[in-house]
Every structure is written in C-alpha cells, then in structure tokens.
Amino acid sequence: MGDKSMSLEDFAGAVESGMTIGIGGWGSRRKPMALVRQLLRTGVRDLTVVTFGGPDVGLLCAAGRVRKLVYGFVSLDSIALDPHFRAVREQGAVETAEYDEGMFVTGLRAAASRLSFLPTRAGLGSDVLTMNPDLVTIASPYADEEYVAMRALRLDIALVHVNRADRTGNAQYLGPDPYFDDLFAMAADRCYVSTERIVEPQDLLTAGPAQSLLISRLFVNGVIETPRGAHFTSCDPDYGRDEAFQAHYASAARDTDSWRLFRKTFLDGDEQAYHEAVAEFHANREGQEKSR
Amino acid sequence: MTEITRAEVCAVACADVWRDAGEVLAHTAGVLPSVGARLARLTTSPDLVLTDGEAYFMSDPPPLGRTAADGGVVEGWVPYRRVFDIVASGRRQSMMGASQIDRYGNQNISLIGDWRRPTRQLIGVRGAPGNTANHRTDYWVARHTPKVFVEKVDVVCGVGNDRARGVKGLRFHHLGVVITNLAVLDYGDDGRLRVRSLHPGVTPQEVHTNTGFALDATGAPETRLPDETELRLLREVVDPLGLREREVSGGARP
Lengths: 292, 254
Description:
A: alpha/beta, Glutaconate Coenzyme A-transferase, three-stranded antiparallel beta sheet, 11 helices, B: alpha/beta, globular
C-alpha cells in the first residue's frame, strides 16, 4: 500500500490554474482551510470552485483566484453571508451557477457515478432554471412526469478535511455529520485529504467505529497532516468553530484597508505563521478582556 | 395569567399549520415556526418528528435554538445527506421565511435585483425549490410590509401556484398558509393569496396598506387566541426565555 502522505507545498504543486476544484465541508464546518490557504500562497487562478461554500469561497474570491462559483449556498453559519462572497456577487465579479442544495447533491452523485446527469424534482418551476439556462428538463420514460436533468458536477480535484487519516488515504470523520466529502472525493479525478492527524491503520478504529471511515483510499491521491487545518471553521470533536476569529474575519472583510491588514497579519506567511498569528490574536483579546 | 401577546397569537397560528401533518419531519426556519412546531408536537400533533437543526432527530428536543449537544433525547441520525433523501420521500413539511412573496406564493430568499449582479445578495435559494417541489410548504413573515409582499419577486426560489400549474413533475406541490405578524393568509381556488384571519387588533386597512398587491381583508374573522394549556406550554416549556417576543412585539390587542 502506497504512502500518499505529502507536504502542503507538494499538494499545491498539483493544482493548476483553470482547474475545477470541489471543496468539502458545509458552510463554516470542517473546511480544508489549510489547503485553501496554501492555494493562496501559489499563483493558481481562474479556478472553478464547486462547494457548499463558507470562508473557503470568501478567501479564494478575495484573492481573485475564482473565475466561476458553483454552489448550493455560501454562508458562515453563525454569520449569514460571507462578506467577500457578497462583494463579488454585488460587483458581478465572478460567473456563478447557484443550485438548490438538493440539486447540488444530485449533481455530485451523478459525477460520482460517472453519469452526465441525474433526474430530480428539485428546481422545477423555479428560477434556478432561469439562472442556469443550460439546465433542461427530461420526460420520464415510465410516467407522465418531467424532471430536471441535473448536470453532473465533475471535478478535476477535490479537497476535504477530516479528523483522522492513515498514510494510504483511508479517511475518518469523528463529528456528527460526514457532509458530502465522500461524494466530492468520488466525483473528482484526484482527491487530496488534509487531516488533523495521520495515524497508523490499526489505530483508526480506536478513535471511532468502522462507520466513521468515510473515504476509502480507493479515492484518495494525497494525505496532508494539518493540525487545526480546518481553522477557523469547526472540526468537531477536535475543536469547534473559532467564533471570535470568524467575527474578526467577517468584520475585516467589509473594508479594503482592514482586509489588507488581515491579509498581512494572517495570510502572507506560511501555515505555521498563520497559527502563531491566530494565537496572538486570542492572547491580545484575552488581554483586552482582562484590562476591561 | 398575564395578557396574551401578538407573538403568542402567531405561535398558535404556526402550531395549527401542523395539525394534520401526521408523522412527518417538521422543518422550520425562524423562531416562531420553531416554537409553533414544538407546541404542535406537545398538543395536536404528537407524531411530528423534530430535529435539533443539525444532525439529529429529537424525541425530546433541546432548548429552543440549541443543538443535541445542549441536551434532549436523540431518536435518529439525519446528516444533511439524509435530509435531502427525506425531502424527496415527501415525509417532510416545511415552514420557511420569505424576503419577498407575491400573490401566488412565489417566494424569494436568494437576492434582490438582477441575479447576474444583485443589488443585494441574500442567503441564496437554499432548499426552497426542492421543498416546494416535494412537500407542503408554508411561510412565516415576521414583518408584513409592501417590501415583502410584492407584485413580482426578483428570483423565484419557492415555487408559487401559478408557476406550478401544468408542470408535470410538480404533482406534490402544495402551498399551505402564509402567517405574518398581522394575519393568516391562505390560497383561493385561483391560487391567489387571500386573508383567512386577522390577528386581534389588526384592521383590514393595515393589511391592505402593508401589502404591495391588492389584498382584501374586509370581513375576515379574528385569528384564534391561545387557550390556557397552550399559553402555559408556550411560556413554561417551549419558550421560557421568551425568544418569540423578540421576533414579534406587542400585545394581542392595541
């Protein structure tokens, strides 16, 4: 069994401009943020990003790396909208394909099964069809019904973050919800898994039941160990969402000067520098609380 | 018993939405719809299935606005993937919000303006198209204004009665009621909204003025008041912190 572990730098080398990348997680939950931050450190651009979006979308849009956004929604959960997402939408700065959440899942399922489409009722009669003029309906061959022929959302690359993985690419989630990470992996030509910790295969089942082994190495091309790699999104039970930092991110994103400062403070260095800056952010905050 | 509030009138109106729902998953967005579903579960609709809003079905729900992590009794596991399967199965009923809604019940939560470059991006279509295609959907509007009740919505997310008519594949389309801080609305045979009842203290003129299309409330009866059991459950069990009063303020009568 091959050792697929790799560095963040090697991972970034596998992503090329113009690719379609799927990003796992959901809103501001278990997002492969370390992988996204690493993409920001490269020159990769013109990406088509396919996701149930959160700050992954915000960061990539703010850095001007996105040509097209394909999404079921973009939200920070505890904050309804990512301000960068709102800004690119209101400026008309990126091409978009917005789908009903269920349609989006149907598109991933089609891609994972190597089909060009799958039928669904979701979207019929709605303006999702207006906003995606390439979508058509299809008559049932068996009943007097028509359905939306949801296009497969095929991906060049999928990025997901999990709680544990082994070196060969068996990936485990320990939180309440797998989201759609396995579908993202199967819908992609190549999948890169970042993980809180790389463990030996025999240790996976000490952390959780066999049912928590979400993604098989069949579908994984690279494993990157990134402790706190979902920060500032949640990665239960290892850590919850960093609400204070997310609020800081959202507030900085509302204004050009404060965003410049945020970028310089948190994003211009490497991954270790990011986590050091976050630790400093919290230390300063606690200091301010005490002096109050 | 202290005076009944407008929010409490809205809460029982929201609860009545679930009266004949049977054994379905209750999906709610907003405080009053959540309060209503929980009240219904404790009164008229004991078979309703409630979630914690995250990944669990709860036979004994956690405090309002909290998740299974804060307590309650888990009776099922429903990660998001299963939610979409349940939507497609039809064993679900939904009460959602609306940023805009027109006379046929077309609902918009996505954005304001042109979808290519909106003047204001909202939360997106989310699951509204799939909900209205698959099972009964009702709407809750906390502030009944002409900005919400419009001639034409900017993006049709939840599908209205005019759009659904004649679409093969929308045989499960079913719009129930629209409950606002002023009134309970339902749909006539022509698919258009009409006033079923006015909340105590609301005049027909008030509804007329606050609706961006013609809506005649003349002669509409009063929305029913909560009974003593409902009031006790609301105040002591379902919403002891009074979150309902933050969404809708004021007494039942002026």
